């Protein structure tokens, strides 16, 4: 079932989204060579708790940590560990927080020190693919229009579009209906309505779109070990467009 959120629910989702955004900003200065992903996880846990929220990932289907840290060829769901970041790495940090029963979800990819031109290209165009998709959102539009726009943008920039993982509805559950794929045709999918809340999250690869699951049953990596990037915002559909709940414009 796709739910339409009331103003009260939206006010809670806005606060959850703010906490997620602020956690990203809090972590940013720490994303440097030498820090371990486990240290980033601990910083995020403490910060989210200090804001009166809980990290939605912790214990979600048994996920052992508070955030996902996906370095280089890891696409998503990297588990924070003793792995140290190195100059030239890229890291996608996926943060979900639950505030008074409502979730916010945003992933962002960051450079560690100086990165290659190819990695810069990947980060730039994966972020742009997200905004390209978001720009289509408005009540009355089919979800396929959003998905298609992301796919077309990625194709135009010769990036592989991961298909095994998709965006999702979000609310008092972290994952709700509908699925929000990063590919598809414009005449597919549900019609967006005012008050729907969705997480849009392109995962794009420098090489093949193929991915596989590691033995830890969480970590998803690219088939050719080339780098992957992930950008995600939680948004609410409005009559004329959309509002980002996990961005810096969520302050009025
Ligand atoms: N943002 C991630 C997603 O939408 C959340 C994963 S939480 C985890 O899939 F626990 F599964 F890692
Ligand atoms: Co998500």
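^ structure tokens above, recovered residues below v
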């Amino acid at each position: 079932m796709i739910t339409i959120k009331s103003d009260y629910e939206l006010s809670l989702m806005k606060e959850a989204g703010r906490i997620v955004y602020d956690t990203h900003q809090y972590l940013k200065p720490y994303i440097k060579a030498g820090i371990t992903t486990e240290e980033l996880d601990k910083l995020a846990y403490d910060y989210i708790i200090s804001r009166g929220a809980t990290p939605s990932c912790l214990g979600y289907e048994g996920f052992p940590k508070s955030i996902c840290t996906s370095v280089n060829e890891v696409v998503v769901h990297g588990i924070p560990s003793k792995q140290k970041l190195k100059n030239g790495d890229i890291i996608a940090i996926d943060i979900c927080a639950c505030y008074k029963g409502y979730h916010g979800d945003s992933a962002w990819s960051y450079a560690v020190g100086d990165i290659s031109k190819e990695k810069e290209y990947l980060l730039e165009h994966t972020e742009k693919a997200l905004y390209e998709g978001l720009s289509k959102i408005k009540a009355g539009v089919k979800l396929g229009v959003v998905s298609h726009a992301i796919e077309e943008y990625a194709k135009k920039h010769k990036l592989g579009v991961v298909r095994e993982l998709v965006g999702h509805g979000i609310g008092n559950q972290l994952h709700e209906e509908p699925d929000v794929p990063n590919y598809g045709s414009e005449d597919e999918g549900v019609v967006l309505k005012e008050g729907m809340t969705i997480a849009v999250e392109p995962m794009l690869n420098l090489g093949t779109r193929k991915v596989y699951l590691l033995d830890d049953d969480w970590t998803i990596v690219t088939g050719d070990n080339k780098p992957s990037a992930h950008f995600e915002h939680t948004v609410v559909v409005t009559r004329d467009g959309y509002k980002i709940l996990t961005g810096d414009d969520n302050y009025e």
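Residues 7-247 form a domain with the Creatine Amidinohydrolase fold (CATH 3.90.230.10).
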